[in-house]
Every structure is written in structure tokens, then in C-alpha cells.
Specification:
With 123 residues, this protein is mainly beta. It has strands at residues 3-7, 10-12, 18-25, 30-39, 46-51, 57-59, 67-72, 77-82, 91-103, 106-113, 117-121.
Length: 123
């Protein structure tokens, strides 16, 4: 069974920083796509940032220059460093990953979500 466990959310003042972590565990053969999404109250879930196993990154325009996504492939962990936080960054942040497992001598790739971690930016 694969699990994604997030940590690092909390309350921070505008202009502050937070670092989110998401660790994948279980029977994992490989992980390609890893990403962070967020969902604010009354809004749709949106992609914040993503990174491939080769290190290619993609960011939402709203966070470019402020957020940095990175990963440690040896630890199956993805990070989101969030700087210069704004009140509009307030949301539940979710980790997402495409994880490949070996099942009955073949590989199978499935998409997984973490449970979410709350980030609140307020003075």
C-alpha cells in the first residue's frame, strides 16, 4: 500500500516562509511526476508546482519567483519552499504523485494524493 504523508503546514505572517514536505512510502518501484496542488475555500484545486524524476519543474504564474519545488529521489520525498507568502496563498496544500509499483512481475503506475496540510497566511 502506498501512502503520501505531508508535513510543514501552519500559520505564518505575510512575507514569511514555510517549507512543506511530502514523503511517499510503501512498495515503490519508481516515481516520475510529483507535484503540489492547493485548494482555497470556495475555489477549485489548482496545480502550484510540479517536478519530474529528471528535475524538470513547472510553476503556476502566481507563485513563480516565490516558491521552489525540489525532491530527494533516494528518500521518495518532495519539498515545497514557500517564501514571500501572501494571504492569497492560504489554502489546503496537497501532495500528488505518479507512482509505479511491481505487481505480479509487471509494472503498474497509479496516481496518489496526500491527506493535505493547511497553510494560513495572516497577520
Amino acid at each position: 500500500q502506498v501512502q503520501l504523508v505531508e508535513s510543514g503546514g501552519g500559520l505564518v505572517q505575510p512575507g514569511g516562509s514555510l517549507r512543506l514536505s511530502c514523503a511517499a512510502s510503501g512498495s515503490i518501484f519508481s516515481i516520475n511526476f510529483m507535484g503540489w496542488y492547493r485548494q482555497a475555500p470556495g475555489k477549485q484545486r489548482e496545480l502550484v508546482a510540479s517536478i519530474t524524476s529528471g528535475g524538470s519543474t513547472n510553476y503556476a504564474d502566481s507563485v513563480k519567483g516565490r516558491f521552489t519545488i525540489s525532491r530527494d529521489n533516494a528518500k521518495n520525498t518532495v519539498y515545497l519552499q514557500m517564501n514571500s507568502l501572501k494571504p492569497e496563498d492560504t489554502a489546503v496544500y496537497y501532495c500528488n504523485a505518479d507512482i509505479t509499483q511491481v505487481v505480479h512481475f509487471t509494472t503498474q503506475t497509479s496516481n496518489y494524493w496526500g491527506q493535505g496540510t493547511q497553510v494560513t497566511v495572516s497577520s
